[in-house]
Each structure stands twice: as C-alpha cells, then as structure tokens.
Protein: Inositol polyphosphate-5-phosphatase J
Organism: Scleropages formosus
Amino acid sequence: MDTLSPRGYVLVTSERMQGVLLLVFSRYSHLPFLREIHTESTRTGLGGYWGNKGGVSARMTVFGHSVCFLNCHLPAHMQNLGQRVEDFESILQQQQFQCGGGMGVLDHDLVFWFGDLNFRIEDYDTHVVKSAIESNRLSMLWEKDQLNMAKQSEPTLRGFEEGPLIFPPTYKFDVGTHTYDTSAKKRKPAWTDRILWRLRATCSPGPTHLPTVRRGLTSWLSHGLRVTQHTYRSHMGYTISDHKPVSATFTLQFPFKVDIPLVTLSVDKEWSKVSDASVSFQVVSSFARNSWDWIGLYKVGFRHAKDYVAYVWARLEESDHLPEPNPATQGKRLEGEGTHPGQDASLSQGTPSRT
C-alpha cells in the first residue's frame, strides 16, 4: 500500500487463506462505481480441511458490470493433472456469492483466474525442456503444457483465454539464483504461474499462442464488453522464491457505464477542525440502507477504507433520494443530478464497531 497509494490507488478488499492472498486495488476516481463487493475462500488441501491449497476470490460490479478475481493454488506434481482440474471444479462449485439471489464465479461477465496453478509440461524430459528454453523454442513446450491441453478437453476450462507464453517457464529455480532446480529432485521447468480470463458468452477466440502473436490480445462479450491484454510477462530478476512472479496488464472497454453515484456528499461550509465539520448526503431510492451505515473523513492519499480520520453514523430517517441510475444509451456516459438537500451529519473521531 505504501507503494500504490502515492500513485492514486486504494485497497478495495482483500482475502487470505494461509499463503494464498488476494488484494484488489482501485484508482480513487473509480471507487464510487465499485459495488456489491464480496469475498470467498475455499480450502482443498487434505480433503478440504487445510488451506495450503484452494482458492480465494473477490467479486464486485464495476460501472454496472460483474467482475470476479479468483486466485488459486492447485495441487503440485506432474501426475496430479486430474486432481488440479477436480480441485478447480470444487472451488467453482463451493464459491457462491450472496448477491442477486446467489451468483457463482462463472456467472460473472468477466472472470480473472490466476495463481500457482501448478500445471506441468508433459512427455519431454528435463534436459529437452531446458534445451528448448535455452534456444528459445518455447512453442514446442507450450504444445505439451497441461493447461493448454486440458482447455481443449475439460468443459470447466473452456472459455478461459490466455495471452501468448513468450517468457520462459517460471518454475522451479534454486532460491537466490536464476538457475533451474539442481536439487536431487531436479524438477522439470514448467509454466506453473498463470493469468487467464473468461468472458461470459464469448465469441470464438483467435489463435492466442502462436509464436508470431505479439500484439495486444482482444476478446469481447456478444453484448460489447471488450478485454484487451497489453502485456503478459515474467519478472526473472526476483530470486526470493523458487518461482518467478508473473504479471499482466489489461484494458476493459464497457458498452455502457453505470456512473451515477449511489451516495452523493456535499460539504456545507469551510471548517478547520473535525468537530466543526458538517456534510449533507443524498442516496438513490434503491440503495439498501441499514443502521450500520457511516460516513468517513479521509486525508488525501488514504490507503484503505479503515484509514479514516473521523466518522459519523448515517441516520436512516429523512433520507432524500437521487434519480435512479439508468443505462438507457449504450456506449455513452450517463449523467444525472440531485436537486434536493439530503441529511446533515457532523463528524466525530473514533472507530465504528462495524464496517
């Protein structure tokens, strides 16, 4: 957070299950349009009793479109391909979000799936794989990649897309070096660390892993949601693990945007201390209010929701309402304004007992 906050990012939510950690950050300007945020976790280690393997997820609506982020750590070892697929199916089955009457991971408009997925390279022995890496013949290894092959045969994996694997396998290295495993086990190098995405009701994807593919990869929903991947790379300079980290950058293009805030705040006057602060607020009529709602005062550059200076409980009575968000025109920005003053609130310092 100390690195991202100066760049205008705020921690939206997080979920952790032992060593599996998911952090979702957003630019400050997008925060009013991230809604219905929920997280889930599923243990699959030791038959579901241990969280060393499994998945953690976070879902939300982004400008009116449902997006889910799923971070998984699947079973290791070459021979456990079937177990990896089975665990992934179990994670999908168990993770049901309590929004809109219940929603599974694959029910979202867009899913990002990533993590130490542990898929290996079949058939070739270790020296053949290393030779192919040294001579940059990565395409011959990709053809034997278990995840690539499983996407053709496993119904659960169909529809997931991935950018071209033009970086060397990211596992397994001697810690502190750039040398593939020299231990007695001599693990075969593999692309265990992956980033994929899935659009609901996608058009047929193009040939995404041909060696000649170098430009941004674009996919889209039938109703116009576009995803463009700009980079997909490993960071081979890191040596603190036997894995090398992987990153990807994307652009999302929405056919329409729900960009009317659910809550609008306005400061009534200038003030120099928290005890003198006074604000009014308005909410849209469909916003589900409850007695635990509160308003926080934050410094510029705040890092997360609990990083407030002061807060006040938002009273339920006498609420005024803004016009409903209504994406009537696709592809255009929605605009609206509220004309009635809302409730007044004075801020106090302390800590809400529930957020």
Q: What stands out?
A: The radius of gyration is 24 Å. The longest helix spans residues 81-94. The CA atoms of residues 14 and 23 lie 5 Å apart.
